[in-house]
Amino acid sequence: MKKPISKPILSIKVKLPRGRLIAGAAAALLLAGGFFWSGQPEGFSTQPLAVVSAMAGSNQTESLQQRVQALAAQYDAKPIDAHNDRVWKGIPGLNGIKIDVDATVRKTEKVNDGRIQLVAEQIPPKVSLDDLGPVPIYRGNAEKKQMALMINVAWGTEYIEEILKTLDEYGVKATFFLDGSWTADNPAVAKEIVARGHEVGNHAYTHPDMSKLNAGSQQSQISRTNQAIQKATGVTPKLFGPPSGAYNDTTVKTAYGQKMRTILWTLDTIDWKKPPASDISNRVLSRAENGALVLMHPTAPTRDALRTILQGLQKKGYGLVTVSQLLDPVRPLPTP
């Protein structure tokens, strides 16, 4: 019994042998995809057809546009006003961001390194930290995936160089709050801290309990320390860290009168008690959170714990910045 023969889609007047028909069909399929088989006759181009190349480019651009639009839907955020929290006191505001889709597509195509180059507008909040007046600050904005290391220095120099080397190794900048009398005794070390790109703050002159001093004495403690730091480093601090965290309203107002913010901390390593290095690193890594200010001192266990802390926080995705950067309202752009 003969097998039924399917009718061709197109009528062909010239009857071809079966083998040629199959070869012709295969060639037609390859042509439709824009390529020829490797055994094509001499003189045929090996490149995709022009119309196919143009369509591919169009699809790539359209795909990039769609990807950026999806990222914009994910990352666009409204600004957050600074406010005075009942527990945490002054909470910095945070800019909103609006991804510029067209500009992002243009920049991504221009750079052409395989990564999306986000371009965004920063939208400032209506209420800034400055609008809150003289308030103490214990943390940054909880929507900012950053943390800051604040290192209070009032005694010794033996561990500072090793701490600086470790910070350099991980590309981290910290904020060192310097005691005024320590700075007067160790101007070269204070200058080296600044030369390595770190921020310096004021830690009073003789490590007093600021809450027990009158307004004049508090003024003197802050201004004398600023003078010592400025003389040693050429920098006038904008941040004041009261020794032992002891302060009152007069302290905050006195610092504010000298254009300085009063800074406390979110997370205390309690390293001044010199616990094992593992206790310090575990305390920091287990309590890490957005906007945290981490209090440290230049002690032997802190030196030994620092590498583990930096590795752990960076692995968790935290940006490690100075205190001023943490308080800044600029919202970091995500990395797609």
From TrEMBL:
SUPFAM superfamilies found in the cross-reference section: Glycoside hydrolase/deacetylase
UniProt keyword Cell membrane present: no
Keywords (A to Z) from UniProt: Membrane, Transmembrane, Transmembrane helix
Domain NodB homology: 145-321
InterPro entries linked to this entry: Glyco_hydro/deAcase_b/a-brl (IPR011330), NODB_dom (IPR002509), Polysacc_deacetylase_ArnD (IPR050248)
Pfam family, one: Polysacc_deac_1
Gene3D superfamilies linked to this entry: Glycoside hydrolase/deacetylase
Protein name as catalogued: Polysaccharide deacetylase family protein
Gene source species: Tumebacillus amylolyticus
